[in-house]
Design a protein that fits this description.
Shape: globular
Strand order of the largest sheet: 7-6-5-8
Radius of gyration: 27 Å
Oligomer: single chain
Number of domains: 4
Helix content: 40-55%
Number of helices: 19
Distance between the termini: 54 Å
């Protein structure tokens, strides 16, 4: 029936709302088919049909049948086995409420902590829970399920497996790949962040726009060598232009491009051609010359740990010790970090943050740190942006003398902050129950809206 439907399926005949409903139906069907495939493959594996066809394993046989990777086929078979031992997970899969990716994340945790099944399955079914947020939840559940000895052993396994490899790919590009312990990774990211911001700010002054990870690569080279490549003098045709407000730079760039075109067109004029060649050579040198970089001091590492656990030396239910955005770390590693790094320690039994208020835009350091702890990502359900979050007076705005207090503040990504203030969207509820409500009448699109989604602005520090 599905095959006959798709044979005559013309999406253009459906409205946008109807097409969205079809997406939901197809997604559920995809989940159901994947579950049925996994259960059937498990039965075929029990009958050892793969041996009849000369395959080394059931996973290899399934990969050959479906065209998926060997690792993906092995994961499907493992998930089918785990459905028998975890009925809540199996029931959600049989109803098509979970994708295979999310189900595998949950099943991996249930091997350590079967008691977390209900919580994790419900979180995995929640469409507002992003894959990244679910992964963080699963990491925390694993950390809580391990004893102190198990946590240390897991950490040591990662430390023993650490590596940094490099190779040259088929295009001649230099590639890096590494595996580090969570605390080492956090220190690396903290060291890169201020330098990356320096590169971003300088590029913006020159009217250049590049991907955030391009600035991250530049920051790594600068930190390791003390030198960096100078940016080009003007953006090329493949790069986006500066914002409309920077009229002077844009005007200069336009005149420079027009001059280059005239110089190229007048190739018969030896003087003009010679000048154009000189300009091109200067630009080429400017992109390859290196200069020393005055690097900012290392950034702090944000460590979240419960005070009682830190004193006790052991995690209990409901407690955590983690580096936000990186993952859980053993308590003994946290103590080492406290001894040899610049660390902001956020504890759950510290100062009464709720009693600290201030009128206007100024947000005191204790409140700022508490907001980072409470809102590690954009609070809009389904958004997991972590970098460049902006603090919003969500109930009483600054213009109405809104207090800079926890009850009146929330962290939003730049895109959602723009939608709330300029497009009529509303943020209601509170921590653990945030609600993002669209305007009753959607406003028309404008140029400012497209400008609000610049990816290269999302990683700026507050």
């Amino acid at each position: 029936m599905l095959e006959s439907f798709l044979a005559d399926f013309e999406p253009g005949r459906y409205s946008g709302e109807d097409a969205a409903v079809l997406v939901d139906h197809f997604a559920r069907g995809e989940h159901l088919c994947a579950t049925g495939k996994a259960l059937s493959a498990r039965r075929a594996a029990e009958a050892e049909l793969f041996r009849r066809d000369g395959h080394r394993s059931a996973a290899e046989w399934l990969a050959g049948k479906t065209g998926e990777s060997l690792a993906g086929a092995a994961g499907s078979l493992r998930l089918a086995d785990q459905m028998e031992h975890h009925p809540g997970l199996g029931d959600a899969l049989r109803k098509g409420e979970l994708s295979q990716t999310r189900a595998r994340q949950v099943a991996d945790v249930l091997q350590l902590d079967p008691n977390s099944e209900d919580e994790l399955v419900e979180a995995a079914k929640d469409r507002n829970e992003t894959n990244r947020q679910l992964a963080d939840r699963c990491l925390r559940a694993k950390a809580k399920a391990r004893s102190a000895e198990d946590s240390h052993a897991a950490y040591e396994r990662i430390r023993a497996a650490r590596y940094l490899r490099h190779y040259t790919d088929r295009d001649g590009a230099f590639r890096l790949e590494g595996l580090f312990t969570p605390d080492a990774g956090a220190k690396l990211l903290a060291a890169l962040k201020p330098t990356r911001t320096v590169f971003f700010d300088e590029a913006r002054r020159l009217g250049l726009r590049e991907r955030p990870d391009a600035y991250e690569a530049d920051a790594l080279v600068a930190l390791l060598t003390g030198e960096r490549q100078r940016p080009p003098r003007a953006p090329s045709s493949g790069q986006s232009r500066a914002p409309s407000g920077d009229t002077g730079q844009v005007g200069t760039d336009k005149r420079a491009r027009a001059s280059d075109k005239r110089a190229t067109a007048s190739g018969r004029d030896g003087a003009n051609a010679g000048q154009a060649h000189t300009d091109q050579a200067d630009n080429a040198r400017s992109t390859t010359e290196c200069s020393s970089t005055a690097l900012p001091p290392p950034a702090s590492v944000h460590l979240r740990v419960d005070l009682a656990a830190l004193r006790r030396g052991q995690l209990e239910a409901g407690e955590c010790c983690e580096i936000p955005g990186v993952g859980p770390v053993p308590l003994e590693i946290a103590r080492e970090v406290l001894g040899d790094a610049i660390v902001r320690l956020v504890i759950t039994e510290g100062a009464d943050i709720a009693s600290i208020t201030n009128l206007g835009r100024t947000i005191r350091a204790p409140i700022r740190r508490a907001l980072i702890e409470r809102d590690p990502t954009c609070v809009v359900p389904g958004c997991d942006v972590r970098e460049g979050l902006e603090i919003d007076h969500r109930i009483i705005p600054v213009a109405e003398n809104g207090e800079a207090a926890m009850w009146n503040l929330a962290r939003l990504c730049r895109h959602h902050h723009y939608l709330r203030h300029h497009r009529g969207f509303r943020l209601e509820g509170g921590p653990g129950d945030w609600q993002w409500l669209p305007p009753e009448k959607p406003p028309p699109r404008d140029r400012d809206e497209s400008a609000s989604g610049d990816d290269d602005r999302l990683f700026q520090l507050e």
